[in-house]
From TrEMBL:
Keywords: Hydrolase. It comes from Streptomyces pyxinicus. Signal peptide: none annotated. The keyword Hydrolase applies. Residues 55-307 form the AB hydrolase-1 domain. InterPro entries: AB_hydrolase_1 (IPR000073), AB_hydrolase_fold (IPR029058), AB_hydrolase_sf (IPR050266). It holds the Pfam family Abhydrolase_6. It comes from the Bacteria. One of its GO terms (molecular function) is hydrolase activity. This is Alpha/beta hydrolase.
Length: 331
């Protein structure tokens, strides 16, 4: 493994240069070259030595930036890193074009193995929740605890508002949608995504909205943007249809790590009704329900989620995180 300032695999060498990814205050980015994939990793310098490691995995269409608020909220509790999954954020596509849940999980495992950071406190949202579940199930040695925010686990009755996202998995739909929305501005697109993902879009500050617009404008210049979206959506649909030992619910039952589940009452993509099923499936689970939150509670209510994570670490007896949690809970 090598860590550099820019991607070095073959897929990256042919990509056009676009505007740089925004790095928030206190954050840094690095590019990690692994077999078959290059990942961009966002991190914050640890507040002190010896903090337990954490890894954050974003959802479909997202990036490591989705975790910036929660990462800042857990400063002094964990030594956090957030990855851009292959084809998202500033990570180039995987060499083999595999955007399945298993393919994304393989990339996460390769990163953790190469970095030697495991076991980590593992976080996942939406698609990242499915990826994190698979990682924790097949490699229990890598997951210290598991925190899942609206994880994309199979539903028999998908919400009507989630259907357009699922349709991206249908061959040709992404290209059709691209042509149909050619005249849409990045601002219009971000406004639509915000309305879909937030319980209350009004919680997005004007500054955060503008940053999201700038990031989308950057990513729309990437020739693989829609392909990564469509293939990853197809990967979720395929994972929903798998049965047996490879089924996500079966793998959830195999997870040994203490698990925090976070569900939003206004989530338009993952049914709130799935919260109880998930709490039963994960053997050592605790459930946080936020009636006013949408699909990205860690962005909408980062302080509340951070408090629940501190409690998880305190309950599970993390020797460092538990102490920090006790100090931070009253702040």
């Amino acid at each position: 493994m090598s860590s550099t300032e820019s991607p070095s695999v073959s897929a990256a060498s042919v990509l056009p240069r676009v505007a740089p990814v925004r790095v928030g205050e206190g954050e840094r980015l690095r590019s990690v070259s692994l077999p078959g994939v290059t990942l961009t990793v966002r991190s914050r310098p640890p507040a002190r030595e010896g903090l337990p490691p954490a890894l954050y995995v974003h959802g479909l269409g997202g990036s490591s930036q989705n975790w910036s608020a929660l990462m800042a909220g857990l400063d002094g509790v964990v030594d956090g890193e957030a990855v851009d999954l292959p084809g998202f954020g500033d990570s180039p596509p995987p060499d083999d074009g595999d955007y399945s849940v298993t393919g994304h999980a393989r990339a996460v495992i390769r990163h953790l193995d190469a970095a030697g950071r495991g076991p980590v406190h593992l976080f996942g949202n939406s698609l990242g929740g499915a990826v994190a579940t698979r990682v924790a199930a097949v490699r229990p040695d890598l997951a210290r605890t598991l925190t899942l925010v609206s994880p994309a686990l199979p539903e028999l009755r998908v919400q009507r508002t989630a259907v357009p996202t699922g349709l991206l998995a249908v061959p040709g739909i992404a290209a059709l949608f691209t042509r149909f929305t050619r005249e849409w501005t990045a601002e219009q697109r971000v406004r639509g995504v915000t309305a879909l993902c937030y319980g209350d879009p009004g919680r997005v500050s004007p500054e955060a909205f503008q940053l999201a617009v700038e990031e989308l404008e950057r990513r729309l210049q990437l020739p693989y943007f829609w392909d990564a979206m469509a293939r990853s959506a197809r990967g979720i649909v395929d994972a929903y249809t798998l049965g047996g030992q490879h089924g996500l619910w079966r793998q959830a039952e195999r997870v040994l790590a203490p698990t925090l589940l976070v569900y939003g009452g206004r989530d338009q993509l993952v049914g709130f009704r799935m919260a109880r099923r998930a709490a039963r499936a994960f053997r050592d689970s605790r459930l946080l329900t936020l009636p006013d939150a949408g699909h990205v509670a860690m962005m909408e209510y980062p302080e509340v989620v951070a408090t629940a994570v501190r409690e998880l670490l305190r309950e599970t007896g993390d020797p460092v995180g538990g102490g920090a949690a006790g100090a931070g809970a009253g702040s």
